[in-house]
What does this fold into?
Amino acid sequence: VIAEDKSYEASIFRQNCAICHGAEAEGKEMDGKLIPSLRRAEVAQKSGQEIYNQIYHGGNGMLPFKGQLSDSEIRRMAKYIKENLQ
It folds into this structure.
């Protein structure tokens, strides 16, 4: 449960990702667009580097986080998504 997770990565998720991907990373609809779940579907098939690139560069409707999060934070988030949300 991300809401109860005390890790630094969970805190970053709550502050930066939950608004679009939902409090528990299950995805949701925003402005008529479906924001994907980070817990299943195509994200589960992506490598850690692919997840990093998506966070860093954005794309497919997602804004880039390269200006908001440090490289280290983005790497930690990619690992968190790959290892904790799958």
Summary: The two ends are 12 Å apart (CA to CA). The beta strands are 28-30, 33-35. The chain has a mean pLDDT of 94. The longest strand covers residues 28-30.
